[in-house]
Design brief:
- With 264 residues, the protein is α/β, with parallel strands linked by helices.
- The chain has one domain: Glycerol-3-phosphate (1)-acyltransferase, CATH 3.40.1130.
- 43% of the residues lie in helices and 14% in strands.
- It contains ten helices and seven strands.
- α1 packs antiparallel against α3 and α3 packs across α4.
Length: 264
C-alpha cells in the first residue's frame, strides 16, 4: 500500500537553527530533570498507587513523559478512538523510533523491538526500563523466546505492543504483517487492537519521519529535532476478537487492512 509522497523535509536555514536553539535546552531539561522524576515513580513503594481510572502511578508518569518528549519534537498529538483496557496485543505500522513514544504517550505497554535498540543513546536505556522484549532478528530461537514472554505477560493481565512488519520502512507503504507474532494473542485469548500512526496531515509526513537510506538513529533523532511542528495522529481502531477468527494469518491480514484504511 503506497502512501502519498510528502514534500521535502524542512532543511537548514534560519528557522531550523531557531528550532534547535529552543528545543535542545528543553530536551536537556526533559532528560536531566523529568526523566529522573519518571524513574522515581517506578519505585515499588508507590509505583502501584492508583493515579485515577485504575491506572498505576508509574504508568501515568511514563505517559506524561512520552507526551512531553513528542511536544519537544514539535508533534501535536491527536488521538482517535481509545486503547482497550485490560490485556491486549496492540499492533501498529512502523515508521521510526518515534512510534514507541507515540504509543507510550497513550497507553503503557511492553514492546517487542529489535535487539539493536539496546545500544541506541537514551532510547535504548528507556526501552529497557519500559519493559521492552528484545528480539534478535532472523533468529528462530529468539522469536520462540519472545512469543513465550509475550504469552506470559498477556496471561498475567499486561499489554504488549508489536510492529508486525518486523522493521521500519521508508514511509511510502505499510508492509506485510508477519502472522506468527499473533500466536501469543490467540493462545492467551486476548483481543488484538490495530493502531494506525499518521505523521502530518493525511499521513503526508511519513517519509519525513522515517529513516532515510543509511541514516543512523542519532542522525534521525537530530534531524527530527529540527523539523517544523506537525500533526501526529494515533488511531486506535476496532479491536479483533481472536476467538471469532480462524487462524493467525487472517488476524494479521485484517489488522493490516484496518490500519491501511485509517491511513487513507
Amino acid at each position: 500500500m503506497s502512501l502519498t509522497p510528502t514534500p521535502a523535509a524542512g532543511r537548514g536555514g534560519v528557522a531550523r537553527a531557531f528550532r534547535y536553539l529552543y528545543r535542545v535546552p528543553l530536551l536537556l531539561i526533559h532528560l536531566l530533570v523529568f526523566l529522573p522524576l519518571t524513574l522515581l515513580s517506578m519505585v515499588p513503594l508507590w509505583a502501584g498507587i492508583d493515579a485515577g481510572g485504575g491506572e498505576r502511578l508509574e504508568h501515568r508518569v511514563v505517559r506524561a513523559w512520552s507526551a512531553g518528549l513528542m511536544r519537544i519534537f514539535g508533534f501535536r498529538l491527536h488521538r482517535e478512538g481509545a486503547p482497550l483496557a485490560g490485556p491486549t496485543l496492540f499492533v501498529a505500522n512502523h515508521v521510526s523510533w518515534v512510534d514507541i513514544e507515540m504509543l507510550h504517550s497513550q497507553r503503557m505497554m511492553g514492546f517487542v523491538a529489535k535487539r539493536e535498540i539496546r545500544g541506541w543513546p537514551v532510547v535504548g536505556w528507556l526501552a529497557e526500563r519500559g519493559e521492552t522484549i528484545f528480539h534478535q532478528r532472523g533468529s528462530q530461537e529468539s522469536l520462540g523466546g519472545v512469543l513465550h514472554e509475550m504469552l506470559l505477560r498477556l496471561r498475567a493481565g499486561r499489554s504488549v505492543g508489536v510492529f508486525p512488519e518486523g522493521r521500519t520502512r521508508d514511509g511510502h507503504e505499510v508492509g506485510p504483517f508477519h502472522a506468527r507474532i499473533f500466536l501469543a494473542a490467540v493462545e492467551a485469548e486476548v483481543p488484538v487492537q490495530p493502531v494506525a500512526l499518521r505523521y502530518g496531515a493525511h499521513a503526508s509526513a511519513q517519509t519525513v519521519v522515517a529513516f532515510a537510506p543509511r541514516e543512523s538513529f542519532f542522525a534521525n533523532f537530530l534531524r527530527l529535532l529540527g523539523e517544523p511542528p506537525r500533526e501526529a495522529a494515533i488511531c486506535f481502531l476496532e479491536p479483533i476478537r481472536v476467538t471469532d477468527m480462524e487462524g493467525r494469518r487472517r488476524i494479521a491480514d485484517l489488522a493490516r487492512e484496518r490500519i491501511i484504511a485509517a491511513m487513507r
